[in-house]
């Protein structure tokens, strides 16, 4: 047993929630961002601003025309797999071999492809690390083992994992349609909390394909955390804190939350209010890429996702036009209410001594 543990340590294989649930999952979200999300943004910019080179067909394959954005989006599987491998500290030959693994897994996983890629890429990466540099023909052994293990496991489990993830996502979305008030609160609070925790809310939303009303509630919860912390901590962190939390991440407050968990109450209470308002009053929906549902105001990706969904709905004839009420709802849910509610709750907690001076200082 000691020899085995020493060998695993030598290969930097660490079985821990932090390694897989925080580092690898977070990396997967970055892979999604750099492929699917960037591709969607580029396509939207090309279409809405009539930018020729972004609308132009770069290449055609199997009857499908690809723009620059389309090519970026098509590489989502490989991007996620490589990002996961990098987070798991895979050596170069393993990392490069994860490209076909990610491509195959995402295709086999269908709508639940991101979760399937997470599981399969993790397995393939760890097996590749086990054999890396253990033979004199490493240039052959490591890629072959990584690809065979990865694609083989994908063939066996990617489709079931994808279907299960899709089923869970559809169940959440169905429940939100059925009970928008209750589910608006639950989804908003849970996804918002996940965004501030050192895990990836974007990856979670992508894994379960969270769109529609549930996606709108998720955006509301994420915005409540980011804008909430940014505004309520302005007296301590000024403009730098406003920007870094408001369009960066509320995760920056985790150290302070550990010291005083009560500082988490204002944005979380705000999310419990903005979520049902989003679902019941403004009918805010995320019909863009599911990963946007867990992004909040990070780079304004949540808002870009909602906008691209509007555009797609208009093009598909599901929506006649983008109305003033759409924009009002988006601004109120994503910016105005999170700022006002979180500040009000924070002031109340400061008054009774639950939040003290510099408790929110970064």
Radius of gyration from the alpha-carbon trace, in angstroms: 22 Å
Uncertain runs: none
The level of helicity is over 70%
Major sheet summary line: 2 strands, antiparallel
Overall average pLDDT:
91
Return the string of H and E elements. Answer: HHHEEHHHHHHHHHHHHH
Task: Work out the helix count.
Answer: 16
Beta strand %? under 5%
Q: Within the largest sheet, what's the order of strands?
A: 1-2
How many runs of DSSP E, i.e. beta strands?
2
How many angstroms separate the termini? 44 Å
Q: What coarse outline follows from CA principal-axis ratios?
A: globular
Structural class label:
mainly alpha
Q: Please tell me the total number of domains.
A: 2
Jot down its keywords.
mainly alpha; 2 domains; 16 helices; 362 residues; globular; 2 strands
Task: Write up this protein.
- There is one protein chain.
- The chain is mainly alpha-helical and 362 residues long.
- The chain has 2 domains: 2-157, no CATH class; 179-351, no CATH class.
- Helices cover 73% and strands 2% of the residues.
- The chain contains 16 helices and 2 strands.
- It has a two-stranded antiparallel ribbon.
- Helix 7 (113-131) runs antiparallel to helix 8 (138-178), helix 7 packs across helix 10 and helix 11 (212-232) packs antiparallel against helix 12 (234-246).
- The longest helix is centred in the middle third of the chain and has 41 residues, at 138-178.
- It is globular and about 65 Å long.
- The N and C termini lie far apart (44 Å).
- The mean pLDDT is 91.
């Amino acid at each position: 047993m000691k020899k085995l543990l020493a060998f695993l340590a030598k290969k930097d294989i660490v079985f821990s929630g932090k390694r897989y649930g925080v580092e690898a999952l977070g990396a997967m979200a970055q892979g999604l961002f750099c492929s699917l999300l960037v591709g969607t943004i580029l396509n939207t910019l090309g279409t809405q601003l009539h930018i020729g080179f972004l609308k132009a067909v770069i290449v055609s394959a199997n009857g499908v025309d690809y723009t620059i954005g389309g090519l970026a989006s098509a590489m989502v599987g490989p991007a996620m797999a490589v990002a996961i491998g990098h987070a798991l500290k895979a050596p170069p030959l393993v990392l490069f071999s994860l490209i076909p693994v990610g491509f195959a897994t995402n295709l086999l996983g269908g709508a639940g492809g991101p979760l399937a890629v997470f599981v399969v890429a993790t397995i393939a990466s760890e097996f590749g690390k086990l054999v890396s540099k253990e033979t004199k023909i490493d240039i052959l052994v490591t890629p072959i083992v990584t690809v065979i293990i990865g694609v083989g496991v994908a063939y066996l489990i990617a489709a079931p994992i994808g279907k299960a993830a899709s089923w869970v996502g559809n169940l959440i979305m169905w429940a939100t349609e059925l009970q928008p008030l209750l589910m608006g609160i639950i989804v908003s609070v849970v996804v918002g909390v996940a965004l501030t925790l050192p895990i990836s809310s974007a990856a979670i939303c992508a894994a379960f394909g969270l769109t529609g009303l549930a996606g709108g509630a998720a955006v509301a919860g994420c915005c409540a955390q980011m804008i909430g912390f940014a505004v309520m901590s302005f007296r301590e962190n000024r403009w730098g804190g406003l920007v870094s939390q408001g369009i960066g991440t509320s995760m920056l407050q985790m150290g302070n939350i550990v010291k005083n968990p009560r500082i988490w109450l204002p944005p979380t209470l705000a999310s419990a209010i903005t979520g049902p308002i989003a679902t019941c009053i403004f009918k805010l929906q995320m019909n863009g890429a599911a990963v946007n549902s867990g992004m909040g105001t990070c780079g304004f990706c949540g808002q870009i996702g909602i906008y691209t969904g509007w555009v797609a709905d208009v093009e598909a004839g599901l929506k006649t036009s983008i109305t003033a009420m759409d924009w009002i709802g988006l601004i109120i849910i994503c910016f105005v209410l999170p700022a006002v509610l979180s500040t009000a709750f924070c002031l109340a907690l400061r008054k009774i001594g639950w939040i003290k001076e510099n408790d929110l200082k970064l």
